[in-house]
């Protein structure tokens, strides 16, 4: 999606990816090698103007090596911070961004002690390599502690309070090389099994005060890292307060709606930022939503064409739990978006999506219609 946006800006691409088949096939030269393959990374940097990533689990050592030879944006340090949940939470705290109570866990005894500090129920997460709900468990009673410790493999963990949130929101922001920041409207996110299923944007239930808080936190984090590019932060909302859950130093799944829902997508603005161009204001086109396609795309591909519905396929082999595409929905009013969402979820016949949408009905008389 980055390289598709970049083609419209006249950019050309080279990809370093260990996979033999990549989503961006045909959109640039593919160097197929491990991220820390020293010969491949030398060939990769040769002649490039700028390097960026769309995936966090790249080799930090290689990114640092490349940064000594070619401009790299965002800063390599953002990968180090976001790549470890302890560093990430500590960074939020150091920059006055509230987070749920947490503690680092290196032994079963630490995990037992965490109960006193963060309370029960709590979520226990591996510090590194967790994504889409992998590498985390909810502990409800002391009797579950040993099972959680063993189940997560006895690796360094973070224990944090299970937040009884009203909703999960995220904000996608971009910062240019000269420090200009733009913000997409915060979106409401719905997960099942730890995987993002649906984002709704912009959502009337997110008050202007909460949106402003999200922008304030995002700006502080962007400036603290002297960040260049797109960054996303996920928050738990409780009443009118926010607690940061995590950040992604890259374009983000909850920003995919911007491809069809905004004049300038997160992909375009990420590229503009890293290439030293001026950012473009998002200019939202209406009431939008994004439905992730998880596992396969068969039913999505069979949906009839419909105004305001846009199918995006990632050219990835189907696999249970894998994000293989998404559908963007754009409507003039909240009512029309609700109808479009209803019809789409019926067509996809997805029980988890239907469950989310039936609880999401837009209230009559809400400010969104
Ligand atoms: P994460 O991998 O940290 O983004 O977690 C995936 C999902 O698990 C989140 O989007 C939440 O739905 C849920 N979750 C993670 N941590 C917590 C928490 N401390 N309290 C409540 N829900 C959580």
Textual characterization of the structure:
This protein has helices spanning 2-8, 38-45, 60-67, 76-82, 85-94, 108-118, 145-151, 208-224, 258-261, 266-274, 298-301, 334-348, 351-358, and strands at residues 14-16, 29-31, 102-105, 122-126, 136-139, 157-161, 167-175, 181-183, 187-192, 195-201, 229-238, 241-248, 287-294, 309-313, 323-331. The chain is of the alpha+beta class and 369 residues long. It has three domains: 2-72, 3-Layer(aba) Sandwich (Rossmann fold); 101-161, 2-Layer Sandwich (Dna Ligase, domain 1); 167-360, ATP-grasp fold, B domain (D-amino Acid Aminotransferase, Chain A, domain 1). Strands 7, 8, 9, 10, 11, 12, 13, 14 and 15 form a nine-stranded antiparallel beta sheet that branches. A four-stranded antiparallel beta sheet has the order 3-6-4-5, with helices on both faces. Strand 9 (187-192) and strand 10 form a beta hairpin. The longest helix has 17 residues, at 208-224. The protein is globular, with a radius of gyration of 21 Å. It starts with a helix and ends in an 11-residue tail after the last helix. Mean pLDDT is 94; it is low at 363-369. The chain binds adenosine monophosphate.
